[in-house]
């Protein structure tokens, strides 16, 4: 049977299950988009041997495969066919994720899927479809929404055969080397371990792997100049995360305390205004006019802050667990697997116990 037809049958077979919680139309676009991505993919060795492959692309592809090998050898991540093929796309993102939250809560609206369980976002291969869904959620459900471009995603290694493995998309191939390595490590971490229904656990674990693995990659594979440049970049990003986390905590307290809607609205507006003002002061002062986060702060809302928490909320706990396991990745993954097997309340209590004390002041670069 042709591979394309087999893929379609494997994916369509899940539609009767999926239709119970979402529309068939959404899954049709998901299946079609993923099939198109697979059809666009070519084996990296084939591209490396092709004299028509541009020299700069050839160099990046070679580096990507070194990162892929490093992930297996040094980070105990899956040794499979994922990211061994390259897909040239004609768009700036692979998918666009929609996230949504109520006006006075940071709890993300959740969508439920087979395998992945319930997650706090929904992906679309077409940006216009994502924007339409975001508009519907605002108008029909009164939610705050955000649409974010996603440069890569993982199918969690659940589809059989090398041809079905996740390819390396052109949307990220020209990223700075440390960022490319980190993203590959992040997506492979999802294939190493995924706990259905717990977005914060999954994304924080994968983010911890990308950070820890990225640091090990830089130490082993990058020169002093590259390490210094990345350290400056990471310090600025840590300052951004700390700033957002501080205001997210204040908003969470506000929403959980409750009170008259008019007062909540006024206090919420004050906190968001202060968040944007503090970023502007940091940007124009210590950051020397770096405007890379301007768009993020311009659209900051409950959905965006809730999504940020999902990706970074438990990262310090996972990093502490890594240190406890002697900075050994195989032991670390095993400890995370044990953690994933705990009942939800016990798992959260264990993560909270691993969290370091809150800093007295926000980090600055």
From TrEMBL:
PROSITE patterns noted in UniProt: PROKAR_LIPOPROTEIN
Signal peptide: 1-19
Keywords: Aminopeptidase, Hydrolase, Protease, Signal
Keyword Hydrolase part of the UniProt annotation: yes
GO molecular function: aminopeptidase activity
Keyword Signal listed: yes
Pfam families per the UniProt record, alphabetical: Aminopep
Lineage top rank: taxon: Bacteria
Name under which the protein is recorded: Aminopeptidase
Annotated source species: Aquariibacter albus
């Amino acid at each position: 049977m042709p591979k394309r037809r087999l893929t379609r049958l494997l994916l369509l077979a899940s539609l009767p299950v999926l239709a119970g919680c979402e529309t068939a139309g959404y899954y049709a676009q998901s299946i079609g988009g993923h099939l198109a991505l697979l059809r666009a993919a070519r084996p990296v060795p084939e591209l490396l041997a092709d004299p028509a492959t541009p020299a700069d692309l050839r160099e990046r592809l070679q580096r990507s495969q070194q990162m892929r090998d490093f992930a297996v050898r040094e980070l105990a991540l899956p040794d499979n066919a994922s990211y061994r093929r390259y897909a040239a796309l004609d768009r700036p993102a692979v998918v666009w994720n929609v996230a949504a939250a109520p006006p006075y809560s940071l709890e993300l609206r959740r969508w439920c899927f087979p395998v992945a369980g319930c997650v706090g976002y929904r992906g679309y291969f077409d940006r216009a479809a994502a924007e339409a869904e975001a508009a519907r959620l605002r108008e029909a459900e009164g939610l705050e929404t955000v649409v974010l471009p996603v440069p890569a995603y993982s199918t969690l290694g659940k589809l059989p055969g090398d041809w079905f493995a996740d390819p390396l998309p052109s949307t990220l191939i020209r990223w700075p080397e440390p960022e490319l390595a980190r993203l590959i490590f992040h997506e492979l971490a999802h294939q190493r371990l995924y706990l259905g229904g717990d977005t914060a656990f999954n994304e924080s674990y994968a983010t911890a792997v990308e950070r820890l693995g990225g640091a090990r990659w830089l130490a082993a594979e990058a020169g002093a100049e590259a390490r210094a440049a990345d350290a400056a970049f990471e310090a600025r990003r840590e300052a951004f995360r700390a700033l957002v986390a501080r205001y997210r905590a204040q908003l969470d307290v506000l929403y959980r305390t409750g009170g008259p809607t008019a007062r909540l609205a006024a206090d919420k507006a004050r906190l968001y205004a202060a968040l944007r003002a503090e970023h502007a002061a940091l940007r124009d002062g210590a950051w020397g006019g770096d405007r890379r986060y301007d768009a993020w702060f311009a659209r900051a809302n409950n959905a965006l802050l809730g999504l940020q928490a999902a990706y970074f909320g438990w990262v310090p706990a996972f990093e502490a667990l890594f240190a406890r396991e002697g900075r050994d990745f195989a032991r670390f993954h095993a400890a995370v697997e044990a953690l994933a097997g705990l009942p939800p309340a016990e798992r959260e209590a264990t993560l909270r116990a691993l969290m370091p004390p809150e800093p007295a002041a926000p980090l600055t670069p």
